[in-house]
Amino acid sequence: MTKVTLVIPAYNEAEGVAQTADRLRPVLDQLAAAYDVEVIFVDDGSKDETQALLTAQFAGDARVKIVPHGVNRGLGAAIRTGFASSTGDIIVTTDFDGTYAFSTIPAILAQLERDNVDIVTASPYHPQGGVKGVPRYRLLFSFGASLLYRLLVSWRIHTWTALFRAYRRPVIETIAFESDDFLAGTELLVYALQAGFTVSEYPTVLRQRSFGQSSIKIARVTMAHLRFQGRLLLRRTPRFTAPAAARK
What we know:
Elements: E1 3-10, H1 17-31, E2 36-44, H2 50-57, E3 64-69, H3 75-85, E4 90-93, H4 105-115, E5 119-123, E6 130-132, H5 136-152, E7 165-168, H6 169-174, H7 184-194, E8 199-203, E9 205-207, H8 218-236
Parallel strand pairs: 1-2, 1-4, 2-3, 5-8, 6-9
Antiparallel strand pairs: 4-7, 5-7
Helix pairs in contact: 5-8
Protein backbone atom coordinates (compact mmCIF):
# COMPACT_ATOMS: atom_id res chain seq x y z
CA MET A 1 0.00 0.00 0.00
CA THR A 2 1.25 3.48 -0.87
CA LYS A 3 2.29 5.46 2.19
CA VAL A 4 1.41 9.15 2.53
CA THR A 5 3.12 11.45 5.02
CA LEU A 6 1.55 14.76 5.99
CA VAL A 7 4.12 17.32 7.13
CA ILE A 8 2.53 20.17 9.10
CA PRO A 9 4.79 22.86 10.59
CA ALA A 10 3.53 24.67 13.70
CA TYR A 11 4.72 27.75 15.54
CA ASN A 12 2.78 29.24 18.47
CA GLU A 13 -0.47 27.61 17.34
CA ALA A 14 -1.89 26.69 20.78
CA GLU A 15 -5.07 28.66 20.11
CA GLY A 16 -5.97 26.45 17.17
CA VAL A 17 -4.74 22.98 18.14
CA ALA A 18 -8.18 21.62 19.03
CA GLN A 19 -9.73 23.01 15.84
CA THR A 20 -6.93 21.62 13.68
CA ALA A 21 -7.22 18.19 15.33
CA ASP A 22 -11.00 18.12 14.80
CA ARG A 23 -10.60 18.99 11.12
CA LEU A 24 -7.71 16.60 10.49
CA ARG A 25 -9.02 13.39 12.10
CA PRO A 26 -11.82 12.67 9.59
CA VAL A 27 -9.41 13.29 6.71
CA LEU A 28 -6.93 10.80 8.17
CA ASP A 29 -9.71 8.23 8.48
CA GLN A 30 -10.71 8.86 4.86
CA LEU A 31 -7.13 8.53 3.63
CA ALA A 32 -6.63 5.33 5.62
CA ALA A 33 -9.06 3.55 3.28
CA ALA A 34 -6.57 3.90 0.41
CA TYR A 35 -3.19 4.69 1.95
CA ASP A 36 -0.90 3.93 4.83
CA VAL A 37 -0.86 7.32 6.60
CA GLU A 38 1.49 9.15 8.93
CA VAL A 39 1.41 12.74 10.18
CA ILE A 40 4.45 14.68 11.28
CA PHE A 41 3.85 17.90 13.17
CA VAL A 42 7.06 19.92 13.41
CA ASP A 43 6.81 22.23 16.41
CA ASP A 44 9.24 24.96 15.41
CA GLY A 45 10.29 26.16 18.84
CA SER A 46 6.86 27.37 19.94
CA LYS A 47 6.84 29.57 23.04
CA ASP A 48 3.29 28.58 23.96
CA GLU A 49 1.68 25.19 24.68
CA THR A 50 1.51 24.01 21.07
CA GLN A 51 3.59 20.88 21.61
CA ALA A 52 1.85 19.83 24.83
CA LEU A 53 -1.60 20.36 23.34
CA LEU A 54 -0.75 18.40 20.18
CA THR A 55 0.59 15.58 22.32
CA ALA A 56 -2.64 15.53 24.33
CA GLN A 57 -4.91 15.72 21.28
CA PHE A 58 -3.25 12.82 19.46
CA ALA A 59 -2.29 10.67 22.43
CA GLY A 60 -2.52 7.01 21.44
CA ASP A 61 -2.75 7.75 17.70
CA ALA A 62 0.20 5.85 16.23
CA ARG A 63 -0.19 7.68 12.94
CA VAL A 64 0.88 10.99 14.48
CA LYS A 65 4.42 12.03 15.39
CA ILE A 66 5.45 15.36 16.91
CA VAL A 67 9.01 16.50 16.18
CA PRO A 68 10.16 19.55 18.17
CA HIS A 69 12.75 22.19 17.41
CA GLY A 70 14.35 23.48 20.59
CA VAL A 71 14.30 27.01 19.17
CA ASN A 72 12.43 28.70 16.36
CA ARG A 73 14.36 28.00 13.15
CA GLY A 74 11.89 29.08 10.47
CA LEU A 75 9.39 27.50 8.11
CA GLY A 76 12.00 26.17 5.69
CA ALA A 77 13.91 24.47 8.48
CA ALA A 78 10.66 22.94 9.75
CA ILE A 79 9.86 21.59 6.29
CA ARG A 80 13.37 20.14 6.04
CA THR A 81 12.94 18.44 9.42
CA GLY A 82 9.57 17.08 8.34
CA PHE A 83 11.04 15.66 5.14
CA ALA A 84 13.90 14.05 7.04
CA SER A 85 11.43 12.44 9.46
CA SER A 86 9.00 11.23 6.79
CA THR A 87 8.79 7.69 5.50
CA GLY A 88 6.03 8.13 2.92
CA ASP A 89 6.13 7.44 -0.81
CA ILE A 90 4.20 10.71 -1.16
CA ILE A 91 4.74 13.70 1.12
CA VAL A 92 2.09 16.37 1.53
CA THR A 93 3.01 19.70 3.12
CA THR A 94 0.25 21.95 4.36
CA ASP A 95 -0.46 24.83 6.72
CA PHE A 96 -1.50 24.32 10.33
CA ASP A 97 -3.86 27.30 10.36
CA GLY A 98 -6.61 26.23 7.96
CA THR A 99 -5.74 28.53 5.06
CA TYR A 100 -6.12 25.45 2.84
CA ALA A 101 -8.77 22.95 3.87
CA PHE A 102 -7.49 19.56 5.05
CA SER A 103 -10.54 18.07 3.35
CA THR A 104 -8.94 18.77 -0.05
CA ILE A 105 -5.92 16.53 0.63
CA PRO A 106 -7.57 13.44 -0.97
CA ALA A 107 -8.26 15.50 -4.10
CA ILE A 108 -4.67 16.71 -4.43
CA LEU A 109 -3.47 13.11 -4.04
CA ALA A 110 -5.94 11.92 -6.66
CA GLN A 111 -4.65 14.57 -9.06
CA LEU A 112 -1.06 13.46 -8.48
CA GLU A 113 -2.04 10.01 -9.74
CA ARG A 114 -4.41 11.19 -12.46
CA ASP A 115 -1.92 13.66 -13.99
CA ASN A 116 1.01 11.27 -13.42
CA VAL A 117 3.25 14.11 -12.25
CA ASP A 118 5.90 14.48 -9.56
CA ILE A 119 4.34 17.45 -7.75
CA VAL A 120 0.86 18.88 -7.38
CA THR A 121 0.74 22.38 -5.94
CA ALA A 122 -2.27 24.25 -4.62
CA SER A 123 -3.09 27.26 -6.79
CA PRO A 124 -5.50 29.96 -5.64
CA TYR A 125 -4.27 32.20 -8.47
CA HIS A 126 -5.23 29.65 -11.10
CA PRO A 127 -8.21 30.88 -13.20
CA GLN A 128 -10.35 28.25 -11.46
CA GLY A 129 -8.99 29.02 -7.97
CA GLY A 130 -9.95 31.80 -5.59
CA VAL A 131 -9.21 33.80 -2.46
CA LYS A 132 -11.53 34.54 0.47
CA GLY A 133 -10.95 37.00 3.30
CA VAL A 134 -7.17 37.33 2.89
CA PRO A 135 -5.87 40.87 3.59
CA ARG A 136 -5.13 42.84 0.44
CA TYR A 137 -1.52 43.53 1.42
CA ARG A 138 -0.90 39.78 1.71
CA LEU A 139 -2.42 39.20 -1.72
CA LEU A 140 -0.36 41.97 -3.27
CA PHE A 141 2.82 40.33 -2.01
CA SER A 142 1.90 36.73 -2.88
CA PHE A 143 0.26 37.40 -6.25
CA GLY A 144 3.00 39.81 -7.28
CA ALA A 145 5.76 37.35 -6.36
CA SER A 146 3.99 34.56 -8.26
CA LEU A 147 3.64 36.76 -11.34
CA LEU A 148 7.37 37.41 -11.39
CA TYR A 149 8.15 33.70 -11.04
CA ARG A 150 5.82 33.00 -13.96
CA LEU A 151 7.90 35.40 -16.05
CA LEU A 152 11.23 34.03 -14.85
CA VAL A 153 10.58 30.29 -14.66
CA SER A 154 7.32 28.98 -16.13
CA TRP A 155 4.29 30.91 -17.29
CA ARG A 156 1.98 27.92 -16.96
CA ILE A 157 2.34 27.82 -13.13
CA HIS A 158 0.11 30.48 -11.56
CA THR A 159 0.96 30.12 -7.84
CA TRP A 160 4.50 29.79 -6.50
CA THR A 161 4.16 30.61 -2.80
CA ALA A 162 1.73 27.96 -1.52
CA LEU A 163 2.90 25.51 1.14
CA PHE A 164 0.08 23.07 0.32
CA ARG A 165 1.62 20.54 -2.09
CA ALA A 166 2.04 16.82 -2.73
CA TYR A 167 5.50 15.53 -3.67
CA ARG A 168 6.62 12.12 -4.79
CA ARG A 169 9.52 10.95 -2.68
CA PRO A 170 12.22 11.27 -5.40
CA VAL A 171 11.62 15.03 -5.42
CA ILE A 172 12.47 15.55 -1.77
CA GLU A 173 15.39 13.11 -1.98
CA THR A 174 16.85 14.94 -4.98
CA ILE A 175 16.11 18.65 -4.58
CA ALA A 176 17.82 20.72 -1.90
CA PHE A 177 16.70 24.21 -0.91
CA GLU A 178 18.68 26.81 0.99
CA SER A 179 16.17 28.98 2.81
CA ASP A 180 15.17 28.33 6.41
CA ASP A 181 12.24 30.72 6.03
CA PHE A 182 9.16 31.30 3.88
CA LEU A 183 11.13 31.28 0.63
CA ALA A 184 11.81 27.56 0.99
CA GLY A 185 8.70 26.26 -0.77
CA THR A 186 9.26 28.52 -3.76
CA GLU A 187 12.92 27.48 -4.00
CA LEU A 188 11.89 23.83 -3.92
CA LEU A 189 9.36 24.29 -6.73
CA VAL A 190 11.74 26.32 -8.90
CA TYR A 191 14.63 23.89 -8.48
CA ALA A 192 12.38 20.89 -9.08
CA LEU A 193 11.15 22.35 -12.36
CA GLN A 194 14.69 23.20 -13.41
CA ALA A 195 15.72 19.60 -12.64
CA GLY A 196 13.01 18.25 -14.95
CA PHE A 197 10.38 17.15 -12.42
CA THR A 198 6.80 17.56 -13.61
CA VAL A 199 4.22 19.77 -11.88
CA SER A 200 0.49 20.34 -12.15
CA GLU A 201 -1.70 22.81 -10.28
CA TYR A 202 -4.69 22.06 -8.11
CA PRO A 203 -7.06 25.05 -8.31
CA THR A 204 -8.25 25.76 -4.78
CA VAL A 205 -9.38 28.51 -2.43
CA LEU A 206 -6.96 30.32 -0.14
CA ARG A 207 -8.72 31.48 3.03
CA GLN A 208 -7.85 33.81 5.87
CA ARG A 209 -6.43 32.11 8.95
CA SER A 210 -9.10 30.51 11.11
CA PHE A 211 -7.25 31.44 14.32
CA GLY A 212 -4.12 33.14 15.61
CA GLN A 213 -1.83 35.48 13.73
CA SER A 214 0.55 34.80 10.89
CA SER A 215 4.26 34.88 11.73
CA ILE A 216 5.22 36.02 8.24
CA LYS A 217 7.19 39.27 8.06
CA ILE A 218 6.12 40.77 4.73
CA ALA A 219 9.06 43.15 4.24
CA ARG A 220 11.67 40.51 5.04
CA VAL A 221 10.04 37.82 2.91
CA THR A 222 9.55 40.25 0.02
CA MET A 223 13.26 41.08 0.04
CA ALA A 224 14.14 37.37 0.13
CA HIS A 225 11.97 36.73 -2.94
CA LEU A 226 13.43 39.71 -4.78
CA ARG A 227 16.98 38.52 -4.11
CA PHE A 228 16.11 35.01 -5.28
CA GLN A 229 14.39 36.38 -8.38
CA GLY A 230 17.48 38.48 -9.07
CA ARG A 231 19.64 35.35 -8.99
CA LEU A 232 17.24 33.58 -11.35
CA LEU A 233 17.37 36.54 -13.73
CA LEU A 234 21.16 36.57 -13.70
CA ARG A 235 21.24 32.89 -14.57
CA ARG A 236 19.04 33.58 -17.58
CA THR A 237 21.12 36.53 -18.79
CA PRO A 238 24.07 35.66 -21.08
CA ARG A 239 27.34 36.90 -19.65
CA PHE A 240 28.39 40.09 -21.44
CA THR A 241 31.25 39.60 -23.90
CA ALA A 242 32.91 42.63 -25.47
CA PRO A 243 33.04 42.73 -29.30
CA ALA A 244 36.25 41.42 -30.79
CA ALA A 245 37.34 44.87 -31.93
CA ALA A 246 37.07 46.26 -28.41
CA ARG A 247 39.23 43.48 -26.96
CA LYS A 248 42.26 44.39 -29.03
